[in-house]
Design a protein that fits this description.
The protein is of the alpha/beta class and about 475 residues long. About 35% of the residues lie in helices and about 15% in strands. The protein has 15 helices and 17 strands.
Amino acid sequence: MHPLQQRHLELTRRELLGRGGCGLGLGALAYLLGRDAQAAEPKPEKMGLPGHLPHFAPKAKHIIYLFQNGAPTHVDLFDYKPALKKYHGKKVPEEAVKGKRFSTMTGNGVGKLLLGNVEPFKQRGRCGAWVSDFMPHTANIVDDLCFVKSMYTEAVNHAPGISFLLTGAELPGRPALGAWLNYGLGNPADDLPAYVVMTSVTKNTSCGQIFYDFYWGSGFLPSKYQGVKFRSNGSPVLYIDDPSGMSRKVKREILDGLDSLNAIKRDDFQDPEITARMAQYEMAFKMQTSVPELTDFSSESEATLASYGPDVKQPGSFAYNCLMARRLVERGVRSVQLMHAGWDQHNSLTTELYNQCRDTDQPSAALVQDLKQRGLLEDTLVIWGGEFGRTPFLQGKLSDRKRWGRDHHPYAFTTWMAGGGVKPGISYGASDEFGIDAVENRVHVHDFQATLLHLMGVDHKKLTYRFQGRDFRLTDVHGHVVKDILL
């Protein structure tokens, strides 16, 4: 018996009902769609497709997001506040925190003591940007950076805050920024994913954050647009090597056979996830050649390796991931998301903050310099920042310096960007004298997202996907492009 005939005889009751129940409905739908098609040709975006993208000439072709999980303390790193030093140990002004929502560890902010910056600040570079001694390597590249010191968000806890910044919603289930770009702009790389994610954490930290898959998920978009996570240990991608005794020719024949079977199933059910699976099998086959070459640093000069710091050859370190990010964009990957955990200093400002800066400062600066030297920074947007800031007031006892900490703070924080169409050597926006509220040129998370999409040639209002009867977008129904920071 022919395999297709056998397959039809083996139809399950569920499949039979699933197919048969659609007959009358599909007939009516075909009539309605046919009638509408005669009246006007439907626009791609109305059918859940992105349409003609990019919408305009992009400033950036690649994006590298150096995401610092746990929320770096803005008032100790980049947002210098002399008033904190002057009023160190004094109670925070009641009017500055009254009615504000903080984490349950702080509760009511009234009566909390102000805490001065732990390390000194200095003005750096020709632009005179204030940078703490915590970040000496970043201090050396300030003339290439655009500091946004007036960021603010709505979430007060980590997972909702990270989800909000990366997906536009505090609850899981929305596509991440990289997934939106993958969906809208496609994959420029032939043998690597369009969206790659790598994670790291400072050794022996007590304040690491969990890396949830929805931070790089595709949400309601087809799963082929989700981020591909490269592992920290062993081979970056599982099963990258063929089994012993299997040649590439045999592997190719197996994949072609699977592709044919999946095509039959796809044509039967029109399930986009089957198409995604077919694409993933094909990409995995290509990555068997591209990934070993990608992870081979032997072609890198000793000077380049040294610039990223002593951990550059250690897979899973932030330094290693930064060099990998440069190599990925060189090979056409559009979105690279590095996530480094450990910034949650509730009681470790005077201990673990030093470790975090030691592990991330030099590689971050080296990445910007490396891209610039290779002519890649002009069309690669590099972003450094976390989900929110940390309170200008103390968490803990003033007398116990070894246990000083700061709580979560959504009302003002700092992010920096480099390359990809942003103005270098500027500081945009400002917080108040204590770093509590963003008060000048305030930049909401949705404004920030709209600006990132704009730099990639995408109008954030036009990149939509219809799901459950509604057109969704990264910025929800909000967001304005921050044009003052663009070249």
